[in-house]
Amino acid sequence: MRKLSFKLGLLFFVFVLGIETVLFASLYVTLVNARINEEFEQLLARGNNHRDVLEKSYHPSTLEHVVMMESEAETDVVITDAKGKILYFSDHILPFAKKLIPSVDVRHIPHSGMVVQNNWKKESYIATASPIRMDGKTRGYVYMFQRTASIQNMIDKLKHHFLVVGILSVFLTIMTIAFLSRVITIPLIRMKQATEKLSKGDFSVRLQVKGEDELAQLGKAIQTLARDLEYLKKERNEFLASISHELRTPLTYVKGYADIARRPTIEEEERAKYLSIIYEEAEHMQKLVKDLFELAKMDQHSFQIQKEPTPLCLFLKKIYEKMYPAFQTKNMSLVYRCEENITVHIDQQRFEQVMMNLLDNALKYSHQGSTVSIDVRMEKKNVMIMISDEGIGIPEADLPYVFERFYRVDKSRSRTGGGTGLGLSIAKEIVEAHGGSISATSQFGKGTNMIITLPRGDDDVYDFIG
Fold it and tell me: What pTM was computed for the model?
């Protein structure tokens, strides 16, 4: 992450430095040109002022006065006649004036004057010319000169200021980018550390996430992943412990009773009893392995269901007729109520497995003489199937966990009841594969309601879990 912070900061720095360079260069060129143009305009305006005075009073005393004024200024003046002959001039300017004035084409000089020497980079002076016109005729010209050293000095100062500001800007840019890249990468560093912990099996990762930006969303995703992995690890350990327990108990029975049945001194009647127990435990293990195989296929997303349009009432009536004798044997009532013309798309074999499991649970955990009912009704776009019993019920503390694998409300009934603790979990997976949901409500000691909700109008023929 240090490398990422450096690369990110370097990338920002290059982009910002490039932008600053372009902006500073543009600003520098603009300011330099503006200042130089300002110098030209001021020099031309000074020459025009002298020209205006001379046009009003063209006398030797006035000409001398103009030259005397410029002798105390940073500029110099040269006054010529109409043919370019020098009449009056400031000190030290005469050599440069004699060189420049003959090369000036006075025919193109307007009354407002013009710059006749603008090469401030190579020449020692810049110059302007303003014509003196009286009575419609040109009497002469006022040439103004200014040393380019002053312009060069101004440019040097401007360069110095820009250099200082540029260095300060680069320094502040580096500090700002370093801070910002650090701020940006700190959450990434923490996320990297968190993922390293996750890779080592430490799921106790807690990230302090603030905001709703992409980094915050990534942090929340890692936090959610950590919680899910922690939950899955706990579930896996509990699952393996439950499988170990479920297999160890019947295997202990099988091994123990097989050892007794092998004794030659045992009577045949007693041997048959032990063999019967061994057979029951083998059946229990067979059912457990079958349920585990079903769950394994669901977890691997290879559990396939084949839906088809099914008249629900007719389908449930067949299940009712199949289960009715078992309820009669236990002196219990099985009631069936269903509206006509309800069609759902289900895998009949898988859904029959769900209904048989729920009805078998109701039969096991209900008292003799009680009633179990199957009720079907429409709710908007859904179909609700409710299996109700008047049995022992489920304690409120256990109700949220009844669909978890190997969870049993009454642990003491696990052997006598013959269940594996997987039936409701498998039923939940099958119902959800149909796009539905299953839930439970119960009052302890009064009974339980298992509620299945299925969608209508599902035209899919094939579906897969996941």
Answer: 0.47
